[in-house]
């Protein structure tokens, strides 16, 4: 009898939907205080998960959900950088 593997779920800070971890993009506040996208999902630091869509990023920015999840203020230029990286990502599987 084959065991069924449990799929890890995470909640998107934008749309608040639970989705499989592999479908979401991780945003990390590194120990140095930098805020970066983490395509591997393994970087050290405090993480928040986001659907790889501009709409979810906009909602997260508007509600300051990303700032709350990462427990830090996020400057506008970092929001722009994240938006460029997300939109440029071929992450829509």
Automatic annotation (TrEMBL):
Matches recorded under InterPro entries: YlxR, YlxR-like_sf, YlxR_dom
Leader sequence residues: none
Pfam family name, one: YlxR
Domain of life per record: Bacteria
Residue stretches making up the YlxR domain: 10-83
Entry-linked SUPFAM superfamilies: YlxR-like (SSF64376)
Name of the protein in its database record: YlxR domain-containing protein
Organism of derivation: Alicyclobacillus vulcanalis
């Amino acid at each position: 009898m084959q065991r069924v593997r449990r799929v890890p779920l995470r909640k998107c800070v934008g749309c608040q939907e639970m989705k499989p971890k592999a479908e979401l993009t991780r945003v990390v506040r590194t120990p140095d205080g930098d805020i970066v996208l983490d395509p591997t999902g393994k970087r050290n630091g405090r993480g928040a998960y986001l659907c790889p869509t501009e709409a979810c990023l906009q909602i997260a920015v508007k509600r300051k959900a990303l700032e709350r999840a990462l427990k830090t203020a996020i400057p506008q230029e970092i929001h722009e950088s994240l938006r460029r990286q997300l939109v440029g990502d071929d992450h829509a599987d």
